[in-house]
Amino acid sequence: MKNPITINDIAFELGVSKSTVSRALRNEPNVKKEVRSKILAFAKEKGYTRNEYAINFRNKSTKIIGIVVPEMITSFYVNFITRIQSILYAKGFHTIISISNENPDIEKDNLLMMESYRVEGILISACHNKKNIDIYRRLIDKGIPLIFFDRTIDELAVPKVKIDDYIKSFFMMEYLIRSGRKQIIHLAGPSYIQNTLERKNAYRDALEKFHLPFNQENIIESGVNFEDGEKAMEAFMKKQIPFDAIFCFTEMSALGAKSFLQKLHYSIPEDVAICCVSGTVLSSLVYPTMTVIEQPVELMADYCVELLMEKLDNMDGPNRTVVLEAKMIIRDSTKVDE
Amino acid sequence: MKNPITINDIAFELGVSKSTVSRALRNEPNVKKEVRSKILAFAKEKGYTRNEYAINFRNKSTKIIGIVVPEMITSFYVNFITRIQSILYAKGFHTIISISNENPDIEKDNLLMMESYRVEGILISACHNKKNIDIYRRLIDKGIPLIFFDRTIDELAVPKVKIDDYIKSFFMMEYLIRSGRKQIIHLAGPSYIQNTLERKNAYRDALEKFHLPFNQENIIESGVNFEDGEKAMEAFMKKQIPFDAIFCFTEMSALGAKSFLQKLHYSIPEDVAICCVSGTVLSSLVYPTMTVIEQPVELMADYCVELLMEKLDNMDGPNRTVVLEAKMIIRDSTKVDE
DNA sequence: TTGAAAGCGCTAACAT
DNA sequence: ATGTTAGCGCTTTCAA
């Protein structure tokens, strides 16, 4: 890369001091009009660009926010990031994005990288509710605000933005039961994600409320991806467990489950409901018969920024938890009221 | 944020010079063993982290690569980024990702931001084949290598990684015609994307080869998104153009088209083929009856890195163009050999 | 094997 | 309104 032009070069060429150049470039008021325009014109002509590294280094402020997400397959996190970027950009922040790929080690590496890059805050959806707790704590101790969203961790005293997982899962179960399902199996998430437990509890409690038998056999714990859903469904089929509805942890695993059934040429009867929490736009559109609970991704992004700004103002401020209402979208032949 | 500990602090505390600390921290050989371990232990205890800004500033090397993509809805770019990140990470590079959202102005802003951040190279899939050409040129003139992939621009003398759009589109048309379709309509892409023209040409040439009538009416130019596909389909239906196959520019627009037909309760006959270029994993799985041309995303990522490294070594080296073979995946009731 | 010193590009306090 | 100067954290000569 060619050596970029600096304020020193400009100062030298125009016979002014570099402070004047610096002031002109930053639109400080106390620069004579002609001098300023001379400087700006010259800078533009020579293609001057601020050296962010020198500036950040000097100012000890980076204006960079780190975003850590476990995956980018579903559109949820993509939409989240898109919105976050546009909000933060308007506030003069840039972002570094890291995709953990559901791997705590990658997450850890990326967090350390972000620390080196002196990010001023981190928005994170954790990929594991135990493994990196020490790192999270360390970063917070160093004064970097961490805001958790979606996949939060209860035992951490940090600002959080979550959805009403339990309640909405419970409603979904109620809806399934009320529409006549008696054999609802649960394709649960992995134990290392906190949301898994909340949804499992909702599954169990809803059955209990309606005096339906709760059977541990009817729950299979799986991962969050398409392949995980396929495998879980395979396991269910092997065990020959009858079902008239499948309550899935994620939309991807739901799609995997359905795909597996299709591969078996098992035609899914109209009255077998497949539903899941955390719907994505894409599959909702593609997949007209799957009831989903859709997370309010824009709202979540907005609150994340709000909580982040609070912490940036005052690191010792309170750690608010915002719980957002999710929306159940029924796309099922046997519709009931929400 | 608390003031992070620096090598000066360490040097002062341990009574050595900061050069020694710097050397120890960077594993330079000429540091006495005991001193080194003392320094490392102290650094670890105090939670020392390199200040990347000071280092980059001093070394004039950032080890950051910018990635610019037009969207992240389809999994293509997500997969691309994931793979790029893992390869570059292994080579000691980090990445800044920007999503243009199909908007050349946003793309421009982000490119300028990347310039300020002194990225050492940029991988870009352009969202418009004209609008930002000046910016691209300027960055290249400044010595920042730009590697174009997927949505490339012919008139720019830069390294490129593209797929054999024309050929594969032609094959797809041949396949449709050979399987008996006579009324193939084309839901084309927008004119500002270069690939649009290649696919349109393939559409026309294939019809010509088989002496089928080519009718401008049978092409509707649309955007790349789901909604664009819906609108285009609506327009086709309004014009009452009969069809037995739809050749779509993107998978998203294909999904939109199909969704629109479904909303009309227009049941798509088995022998109406919907097919598209640039398939994503998700919808291929969800959507068993859509023939797609799948882009070799991993290979594309690998070549991008290869071309980037070449340019990084020698900015004046040749501008290679790599053309990758795409794969037609027939998911149609009336199968034929590829 | 170590230390002293210069300097990367920029900003801000201070002086003029 | 402008210039002078010091210094941010680090690496890298050069000297010891």
Structure description:
The structure is a homodimer of 338-residue chains. Chain A is an alpha/beta fold and 338 residues long. Chain A folds into 3 domains: 7-50, 434 Repressor (Amino-terminal Domain), CATH 1.10.260; 61-163 and 296-324, Response regulator (Rossmann fold), CATH 3.40.50; 165-295, Response regulator (Rossmann fold), CATH 3.40.50.2300. In chain A, the strands form 2 sheets. Chain A has a 6-stranded parallel β-sheet with strand order 2-1-3-4-5-11, with helices on both faces. A 6-stranded mixed β-sheet of chain A has the order 7-6-8-9-10-12, sandwiched between helices. Chain A has helices at residues 7-14, 18-25, 33-46, 52-59, 75-90, 104-116, 133-141, 165-178, 194-209, 226-238, 251-263, 281-286, 297-313, and strands spanning 64-69, 94-99, 121-124, 146-149, 160-163, 184-188, 219-221, 245-248, 273-277, 290-294, 321-324, 327-329. At the A-B interface, α4, α5, β2, α6 and α11 of A face α4, α5, β2, α6 and α11 of B. Chain A binds a DNA duplex (16 and 16 nucleotides) through residues 6-8, 16-20, 22-23, 26, 30-32, 35, 50-51, 53-55, 57-60.
Quick overview:
In chain A, 46% of the residues lie in helices and 16% in strands.
